[in-house]
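Hello forum,

I keep getting stuck at the same step: I have a sequence, I want structure tokens, and every attempt I make locally crashes halfway through. Rather than fight my setup again tonight, could one of you with a working pipeline run this one for me? It's a single chain of 217 residues.
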Amino acid sequence: MTLVIHDERRNPAGTAFAGFAAVIRPEERTDHALETGMEAARIGERLAERRFFAPNDVHIQYYRWDCVQNCIQPEFQWVQQVKEKYDLNSFLKVYGGFVADHDQTQVNIKIKSPVPMAVAMLPSKVANQLHARPEALESALGDSSCEQRGVENITFQCTFNVSDGPQSLIVVPEDATSVPRKKKSEIQMQVVKCMANCELIETGQKAAATDDAPKAN
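Reply #2:
Ran it on my machine without issues. Output:
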């Protein structure tokens, strides 16, 4: 940012009328010369509300909004975890490997499909058993705090804590018996991860736990 101070008179050589303490701007000059006192008086009356005094007296007080305490903070960034466009089929798809690196970690999930889909985040131990035990799917979805049923085009978010442990994203058609051929489904998942000053998260969580601990009488 640059502060610019501009003398409104603009042209130091402009014609000045001492009697009115005013300077005529170039664009305010008439085509004919101002030769008579009567004509100068009329212009002086027109410019009476804009008076100039010499020398200029300008006072500048500059303030800057800046951090003075707790200025170093953890830096977070959205990171792509899953992005796939695949031929739609009736099989359950499982994408694992997500672990929250701080409490209240945000997860953003986007699904686009020609048929209604079930989408959910499940504990990895549960998700990995669903291929062998497909009958457990309904129960697992019912226990999930991050799920969408019967969706074709949706974007939604969930949050997880470190104590939730490893999580997996699962995607499956709601009706496996009527999946159209030669159609594609698209799934994306992004998570917020700490990229710098991450040790401050643990420090802050420990401080919060200490503040929440019951105090002895």
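The first helix runs from residue 37 to 46. If your local run keeps crashing, start a new thread with the error log.
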